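Researcher: Hi, I'm a grad student and pretty new to this. My advisor asked me to get structures for two proteins we've been looking at. I'm not sure of the right format, so I'll just paste the first sequence and hope you can take it from there.
Model: That works fine. Here's the first sequence with its structure tokens right after it:
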Amino acid sequence: MSGAAGPDSAEVPEERRFLSTEEAAALERELLEDYRFGRQQLVEMCGHASAVAVTKVFPLSALSRKQRTVLVVCGPEQNGAVGLVCARHLRVFEYEPTIFYPTRSLDPLHRDLTTQCEKMDIPFLSFLPTEVSAQQPLRGRWGMVS
């Protein structure tokens, strides 16, 4: 019976690892060029996956109403666009996101995603309130920071 797998062999998960910067760039290039995904599709998939990850680690059923608040930190680059999508999905999943977006992008995709979040009444901050940054940690005001 050499080579035969035992009943538990299928249950052993593969070791997880992170993609390197080069691997992530190659994967993105392959999805854009070979598979003909658009940039907006990739941003939407990444933002949705990020929101789902939050729901897996912090399920609503385990949180008080105050703990459902999430501070999503966004910048002007592609990860910022992913954060905007993540915040939008978190709102749909009944979390209470606030977006910290100090440097806004002029990119049309960012503007569209910002408009969508605004239409969903997701609050935006361009700076952190003094009382938060000086006297209490972010987690004191928001249940989660992503």
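Researcher: Oh nice, that was easy. Here's the second one.
Model: And its structure:
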Amino acid sequence: MAQQPISLQSPVGDSDDTNFGDFIEDKGAENPYDMTAYSLLREKLMDVLDSLTQRERKVLSLRFGLQDGYSRTLEEVGKQFNVTRERIRQIEAKALRKMRHPTRIRQLHGFFDAESNNSGPGFDHFKRNKDAEK
């Protein structure tokens, strides 16, 4: 049984203003809800990062790729600051400890409770380290 091809420009319904192609999902398009949630999360995260020292903020940005999406190693970050990777690890640990403070984490908490799929590797790492401190 052969199927006949149909044009995406074929009218649907009684009016000529709706085409068959209007009902085909664009898999390449970003989901507006996800884009908005990501934008709000990024804004809140930047607010929390602003409460850290400039050095702590820069270390976390480089380590987790917050600016350019490229996560750097302790060694790479250490070279930029002219310090050892151990010192960068200490700065990172202190900054993450500060970010786990209830007043700071409360700003981000709603983003991770609302949907169970919002648990990317960065948040899992952040939460795992928080749980380990207890």
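Researcher: Is there anything I should tell my advisor about the second?
Model: You could mention this: Helices lie at 32-49, 54-64, 74-81, 85-99, 102-113, 121-133.
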